[in-house]
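The record is kept unedited without comment:

——
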Amino acid sequence: MNGKIKTFVARGTSIALLIGLAGCANNQIPLLPTKAQKQPMTTDPASYNYLVGPGDSLDIFVWRNPEVSQDVTVRPDGKVTTPLVEDLDVSGLTPTEVARKVEEALSVYIKEPIVTVIVDGFKGPYSEQVRIIGEASEPQAIPYRQDMSILDVMIEVGGLTEFADGNNASVIRVIEGEQKQFKVRIDDLLENGDISANADILPGDIIIIPEDWF
């Protein structure tokens, strides 16, 4: 029995030592550098134009050339492939800009092509999406829409959980290449109907909703 106890103690000591060494090693490991968030393409809601992003469905119509017209989905790398056109980078462009780019690529094979691009299944590029994390009923990333507000976002995510501290929520926004943090009063908006708390949202905003600990 004593031998077993000594073996157990020895093993326990070894495990504790390994945990301690791992802790020391973790303290010496540098933090993963944060990814610099892209400056949102739109800073004024009134001038917002939808930008194509990965996952979007595009209906590319080439006038009088049905054989090269096609419905395509933007790949995760932001590119599309259509008949006669391979690996065309379209992420971050407006639908009109995509149409002009397809026309330029097709002009090698077709004389003066006329292209129209219609977007379906809107997602948009990551730099334009609004992200909601924390104590939202359905935390998620949603495509930005013109004149979107906090209230619109809350409807999209199903409101707050019962544990949310909505009046201590914050919005992280990139302004002139730097991240800035702003406080928002979601509880006042949703529970008290205080419309003055209904702040504007911009593409690329991150809304953080903390938990109420009391």
Notes: Residues 48-120 form a domain with the wza like fold fold (CATH 3.30.1950.10). The chain has a mean pLDDT of 86.
